[in-house]
Amino acid sequence: HGVKLLNDYLKSNKDNDVIVTSILQLMKHNNIIQEIFGVNSHSQIIAKSTDIIAVILERNFLSPDELMLILSGTQKGDLDGKLTILNILKELSHLFSHEQRQTILCFVYEHVDTSNIKEKEIELICNLSQSSNNNDDVVNAIGFFMGCILKCKVHGDKMNNLLIEKLKDITKIKREYMVQVFMMCAKALKDNVNAVMAYKILFSFIH
C-alpha cells in the first residue's frame, strides 16, 4: 500500500522538481530501496516499484550499493521475486548509465546458471547490450549466448530458439558481429563441439 501511495505521489508531482527531489531524498534517508528489495521484500511489492525506480534512475539517485541490493534480490531463492526484478531491469534498461549497465551485466554473467538460464535473463542481456554504445558489451553478449547454445546441451528447443533469436537481434547492429558468430560456428564445427546447433545457428542466419 505504501509503495502505491509513493508511486501515485511521485506521478502527481512529476513536473515539480523541488517536490520530486525532496521525496527522493526522504526515500534515501528512510532506506526505501532496502524496504522494497531487502530480506523482507515480496514479489508483489517489487512489481509495483517499477515507476519509482524509473524516477530514481532519471534523477540519478540510485547509488551503487542500492543497485547491488536490487541485483542481490535475484539470488534469494524466490523465483517470482527474481523474475520480477529481472523484468524491471529489462524494462528500464534504457535508463541505466554506462557504469550501471556494466555492473548489471557483470552480475548476471557471474551468477547466471547457464544450464538453466531464464528467458528474462536472456532478454535483459539483450536489452542492455542493444542500448549500450560500448562495442565490448555486444561482443560479450554474443560470446555468452553462443556459449549457452553450443556448450550447454540441456536446453530445450524453445530456449535455444530464443537464444538464437536474441543473437540475431544484437548482431543486426554491425556486420562485424555476424562475422563473429560465423567464426564461432566454424570453430565449433572444426572442434566437433555441438555441430548440430552450430549448423542450426548458421542456417537461421542465412535464411
Summarize the structure.
By secondary structure, the chain is an all-alpha fold. The protein contains 13 helices and no strands.
Q: Could you say which overall geometry the principal axes of the C-alpha atoms support?
A: elongated
Q: In this structure, how is the largest beta sheet organized?
A: none
Oligomer: single chain
Helix-and-strand structural type:
mainly alpha
Total of DSSP H or I helical runs spanning 4+ residues: 13
Notable features of this structure?
elongated; mainly alpha; 207 residues; 13 helices
SSE blueprint:
Elements: H1 2-12, H2 17-29, H3 32-37, H4 43-47, H5 50-58, H6 64-72, H7 79-91, H8 98-111, H9 119-130, H10 135-151, H11 157-171, H12 175-190, H13 195-206
